[in-house]
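About this split. The held-out portion is used to measure sequence recovery: a designer receives only the structure tokens and must propose an amino acid at every position. Recovery is the fraction of positions where the proposal matches the reference. Here is one held-out target exactly as it appears in the evaluation file.
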């Protein structure tokens, strides 16, 4: 605003140049300090601010954003804001005679955290993910970018990161191809309305950051007639695409109420525990690692089961039930059809239809035979009865009242009146 003087402008130029050099030194070209809007004022969070602007004198009032500011905030043409919050960051306009004289944009400066990132690769052929879990609140207008370069001398590029509300993390993706085996130089840049901060640069090699997701669908089941065995199965993580790269697994198991933890490594998706404690529940979890490099995944969800026991106190699983019914079916008719499904659905107690026919015919035949014999014997029996009476009278004195005593009691028993409640 003052008259153009040679010396001060030279000084200004020099100062600006110096400032640029210094800031260029501190601020990465891809993580520059934000350019402040014209007519803005930067004030730290919770500070007291007094606003004014040229020409705002005398009988004036202020507008806070779109609405008129309360009278108590105005003093001698100035606007006083106490203990400012981030919501106070807006445009304030000085009004004189219904005309806006000037305006100031207040930028509330909040502490900007230096980003601390972590990068990982879930599969050798997938993209690299870098994450930053911020500890403090996210300041207004916060932007996060990932600065990356392939090798030390290559040109750096910047990729935007996004905020994931469920994990409360900033997440960035870096395009990676499995044929690139050199290192990446990575750093994360956080920018707010008023400031920018760059995290420490990291040299990242795909081998060092290889960490798969944990295995999924871990199940444990008892093995019939094996009181010390358990069968563990699982599936590779969903992010592990294809079969070209192999995973190594570590199975960890411990009996309930015990600190004794056992573990074993395998490259199959199934494992047999052979030293389980009889009748004790066991907890099992599995983790995965690329077979040659990188680090172990986190542990999978825990599964549990109790080994098979003689008295069968354990509830049979659906799987074992199916196995049992299939077993019965095959032992009943070993030459049955090969369809496994029918083996499970057919009830083992139902004999084929022809057994009824054969049974019926045989029964009828036997009945006929018995009838024929009975008729043929009829004459013999009548002569025998005549002889028998003689014998009876000789050896036993049968009381005449015996039969009449029994009969009425039997009759009563059939028609007993049971008192109904
Ligand atoms: C702001 O002003 C109040 C009094 O109005 C004072 O108590 C407080 O300490 C001031 N805050 C700062 C940061 O200066
Ligand atoms: C990796 O990212 C690139 C673009 O950045 C994308 O085209 C590609 O599909 C991604 N690859 C995988 C495996 O997600
Ligand atoms: C596990 O994998 C090996 C080969 O790595 C194989 O020989 C073995 O039969 C597998 N075991 C089971 C139980 O599938």
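Reference sequence for scoring:
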């Amino acid at each position: 605003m003052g008259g153009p003087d040679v010396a001060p402008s030279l000084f200004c130029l020099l100062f600006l140049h110096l400032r640029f050099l210094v800031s260029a030194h501190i601020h990465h070209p891809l993580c520059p300090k934000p350019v402040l809007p014209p007519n803005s004022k930067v004030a730290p969070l919770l500070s007291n601010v007094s606003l004014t602007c040229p020409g705002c004198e005398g009988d004036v009032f202020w507008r806070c954003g779109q609405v008129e500011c309360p009278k108590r905030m105005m003093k001698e043409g100035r606007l006083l804001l106490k203990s400012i919050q981030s919501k106070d960051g807006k445009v304030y306009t000085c009004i004189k005679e219904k005309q806006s004289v000037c305006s100031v944009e207040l930028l509330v400066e909040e502490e900007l955290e230096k980003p601390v990132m972590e990068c990982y690769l879930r599969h050798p052929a997938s993209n690299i993910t870098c994450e930053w879990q911020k500890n403090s609140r996210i300041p207004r207008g916060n932007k996060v970018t990932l600065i990356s370069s392939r090798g030390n001398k290559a040109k750096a590029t910047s990729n935007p990161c996004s905020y994931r509300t469920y994990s409360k993390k900033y997440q960035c993706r870096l395009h990676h191809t499995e044929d690139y085996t050199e290192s990446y130089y990575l750093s994360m840049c956080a920018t707010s309305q008023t400031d920018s901060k760059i995290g420490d640069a990291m040299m990242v090699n795909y081998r060092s950051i290889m960490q798969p997701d944990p295995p999924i669908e871990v199940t444990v089941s008892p093995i019939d007639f094996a009181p010390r065995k358990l069968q563990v199965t699982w599936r590779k993580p969903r992010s592990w695409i294809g079969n070209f790269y192999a995973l190594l697994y570590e199975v960890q198991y411990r009996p309930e109420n015990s600190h004794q933890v056992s573990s074993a490594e395998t490259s199959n998706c199934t494992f047999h525990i052979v030293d389980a404690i009889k009748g004790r529940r066991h907890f099992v979890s599995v983790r995965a690692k690329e077979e040659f490099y990188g680090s172990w995944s986190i542990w999978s969800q825990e599964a549990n089961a109790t080994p098979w026991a003689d008295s069968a106190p354990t509830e049979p699983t659906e799987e074992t039930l199916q196995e049992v019914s299939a077993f019965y079916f095959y032992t009943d008719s070993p030459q049955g059809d090969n369809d496994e499904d029918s083996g499970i659905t057919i009830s083992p107690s139902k004999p084929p239809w022809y057994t009824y026919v054969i049974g019926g015919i045989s029964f009828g035949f036997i009945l006929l035979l018995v009838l024929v014999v009975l008729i043929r014997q009829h004459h013999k029996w009548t002569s025998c009865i005549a002889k028998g009476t003689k014998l009876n009278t000789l050896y036993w004195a049968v009381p005449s009242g015996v039969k009449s005593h029994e009969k009425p009691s039997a009759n009563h028993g059939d028609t007993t009146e049971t008192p109904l409640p």
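Annotator remark: Residues 126-127, 175 surround 2-acetamido-2-deoxy-beta-D-glucopyranose (ligand 2) (CB under 6 Å).
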